[in-house]
Amino acid sequence: MNQLPIFLHINDRDCLVVGGGPVAARKIEMLMRYGARVTVVAPQVGARVAGWAGEGRLRLLNRGFEPVDLEACDLVYAATSDAAVNERISRLAQARRIPVNVVDNPALCSFVMPSIIDRDPVQVAVSTGGASPVLARLLRTRLETLIPASYGRLAQLMARFRAAARARFPESTQRRRFWEQVLHGPVAEMLFAGQDHAAERALEAALANADEHPPVTGEVYLVGGGPGDPDLLTFRALRLMQQADVIVYDRLVAEPVLALTRKDAQRIYVGKERSQHTVPQEEINALLARLARDGHRVLRLKGGDPFIFGRGGEEIETLSAEGIPFQVVPGITAAAGCASYAGIPLTHRDFAQSCVFVTGHLKDGGMDLNWQALVQPRQTIAIYMGVHGVEPLCEGLIAHGMRQDMPAALIERGTMPQQRVLIGTLATMPGIVKAGEVQPPSLLIVGEVVRLHEKLAWFA
Ligand code: SAH
Questions:
Q1: pTM of the model
Q2: Atom 3 of ligand 1: nearest residue by CA position
């Protein structure tokens, strides 16, 4: 370990960049972003550098490097294509004790550039000590996924209240505990959910009430867990899954997705098998509210997207009526997941300009659908919960004017390793479903786009 990581104040400092090509432009852009005063020395420059010079954002000297350029300079980048020039700049700069970076030549650098995760004002810098820039980039990508984009705004909010918190809690342990509660509680969550004003008010209130025991407020995260492949979760879903202390889930949530929730969280299964709702919807609504009132951070985890045939709306209506904080995290809905993983574009310029999502759920043995709207030309139909009623569905579409040989696909356990795609037509699909002993969950797609499956299928 022979490199000391530091963060340098560069605002209004004089920085020299020698070179004017694309590589130099990247360095210049970064320096300008951090508020440096940039001088560029290069006999010729590319369009970007010329543009910045024209806008007066940097000083351009159209000539080769001269040692005098290093006078009154706080930092130097050598980014010319001439190795000898780069080496000379490095030698002269180091003799003058000016930090110097020669692009892609660690041996000539007195400082190296880390990989940066930028959540202004929060910054994380990664270095592998020159061992492997590729590894540094990989680490950066990992960290990018771990640190929500909104951490910057969180840091700004905390900075605004720093003096007030210091006055309120002169003792550092108390102060630290206060901030920890802020970071792990509703204030941070409100901010991450884009409710900046609510977060600010909650922080004010927390600071004002800090003496008494503040009332414990729980919250509910209504999260879409996607169709099955855990890689399809959103960053926010994953973060909340690892933070909630109670998880309320149903059958549609795939096991590998559930496995990513916090290990020590309490898990409550609320069923929802077809025609046999293990826990009635009203009880689920009430359960969520009660758990949150008891101070829990409750994850209501749903398959696919919570607002698409997921009754998510009903569940948060109860919460909203009771004034319980909640947020909704979208998930990839089954139609999108199954279509992608089966190589069936839901829309396509040649085949379909629209796509409708319908439920094929049987009600009292029948199907209450707007058939006329469904049989429109150049339209794809994605049918959720349609396997049981596949026969009346296909017959209904044909009876209302759709061609018997309209292509149809059934995607069983879409996006999961066991995914199966059965292809047929409206006329043959009921037989295919019966013969194939189709397992839930399965989705039907009807429309000309199904033809593309043959060419575009990629997921085995
Ligand atoms: N909210 C969910 C849908 C719930 S309705 C979403 O947005 O996806 C349940 C229906 O979704 C199932 O009957 C099935 O038709 C469909 N479905 C969900 N996950 C699926 C999967 N992995 N593969 C195929 N169909 C799926």
A1: 0.76
A2: 309
